[in-house]
Amino acid sequence: MGFVRHFRVLYVQVLLGVLLGVLVGVLWPQFGASLKPLGDAFVKLIKMAVAPVIFCTVAGGIARMGDVKAFGRLGARTLIYFEVVSTFALVIGLAVGRLVQPGRGFNVDPVALDPKIGAEYLAKAQHGQSLVDYLLNLIPDTFVGAFAQGQLLQVLVIAVLTGFACTKLGEFGERAAGVLDDIAKLVFGIIGVIVRLAPIGAFGAMAFTVGRYGLGALVNLGALIATFYLTSILFVLIVLGAIARYFGGFSILKFLLYIREELLIVLGTSSSESVLPLIMAKLQRLGAGKGTVGLVIPTGYSFNLDGTNIYMTLATLFLAQATNIHLTLMQELSLLGVAMLTSKGASGVTGAGFITLAATLAVIPDLPIAALALLVGVDRFMSECRALTNLVGNGVGTLVIARWEGDLDRQQLSRELDRGPSPEPAALVAATQVD
């Protein structure tokens, strides 16, 4: 009976799905690789509900906030926090790469590498936009177009405008905010149904990863992978742990335990977007205000990617060391400056970090883009760690910023962390708690 009771808990089901996926990928690689649609389908189902959640949460939160100055202060603090922490992550990746030198001894001849692989990713990276085009792209062509295309920042812009409009419409605006809350409750209920499929999605995605790329790739580039995972773990426990303790007033270990379901889903799917609505729901349950959560989390998915930042500088130094190319101090500083910009273009989607890395490498002429071929076989495994670190960083940042804004119920935060996560999916519980 005890085993059956534990098996009904979502995170146990997801963990079993991940382990079975690894087993299938090892024993039947071809079959495992064919299971990719299971993981893709789950991620698409979740992403289907992301835009409505962000819109309703942000618009409703601003409508009830009623203070434009307070909202402007929240946005400014959010961007400053993200820039400081994400830059620190870039510096850590650079420092660890110089200290550990995971690529030393590979002695790879760049001429012997397949140039087509690097060129393919570079071509994708070069489809990027100028700063002016990027800012213009924040404005959707149509109201519904942003939702249809899943452009989260565009949805955020629409939500902000809608929220401000509600504050100007008096009683009607209050009724509109109530309708947004009701829609949010419905969408969270839908997510509560979808999230039950998380074990199947995690199983399919993990079976594909192991079956397609094989565990042998982990052995060949074990030094880099171990360095990256260890650096990310230490970043979470020490850097984010210190931020959580001294600026947020909570334990990072308790927080990690509280979001264990989301962490396992991200581990299985290699995408932090697969849990975006779920982490928003849990942060609200931890006492963070709905408006703060709605603004900080979607913004963080574009501007606060700590795991991606560590990976970019660390992987660049690895490639230079593996190909015996010496980077000068000025080149490393240039790398840091460019990475501060290119990292803001990455998202929670699997593989985006690798494309961003290609864009960063393009600014170092001495390092051939063909060197990316060394990382293709293991990038999927690295993507999992990037997504996990990104998720934790955004969760910690949201609680810290909410506390700065006086929008965090500290007693509820302490009570929830001490009690631990509910055995039910976060979204399903949140569906009954939307005010």
Characterise the protein shown here.
With 435 residues, the chain is mainly alpha-helical. Helices cover 75% and strands 0% of the residues. It has 23 helices and no strands. It has helices at residues 2-7, 10-27, 29-33, 36-65, 68-100, 115-125, 131-136, 143-149, 152-167, 170-194, 198-213, 216-220, 222-248, 252-258, 260-269, 276-285, 290-303, 306-322, 329-342, 352-361, 379-404, 410-419, 426-430. Helix 16 runs antiparallel to helix 17. The relative contact order is 0.19.
Question: How are the elements arranged and paired?
Answer:
Elements: H1 2-7, H2 10-27, H3 29-33, H4 36-65, H5 68-100, H6 115-125, H7 131-136, H8 143-149, H9 152-167, H10 170-194, H11 198-213, H12 216-220, H13 222-248, H14 252-258, H15 260-269, H16 276-285, H17 290-303, H18 306-322, H19 329-342, H20 352-361, H21 379-404, H22 410-419, H23 426-430
Radius of gyration: 22 Å
Mean pLDDT: 80
CATH top level assignment: Mainly Alpha
Describe the main β-sheet briefly.
none
In helices, the fraction of residues equals over 70%
Q: The CATH topology, please?
A: Proton glutamate symport protein
Per DSSP, the total helix count is 23
Number of domains: 1
Low-pLDDT regions = 427-435
- Reported CATH architecture: Orthogonal Bundle
Strand content: under 5%
Q: Structural class of the helices, strands and pairings?
A: mainly alpha
CATH superfamily: Sodium:dicarboxylate symporter
The H/E string reads: HHHHHHHHHHHHHHHHHHHHHHH
In total, the number of strands is: 0
Morphology: globular
Distance between the termini: 37 Å
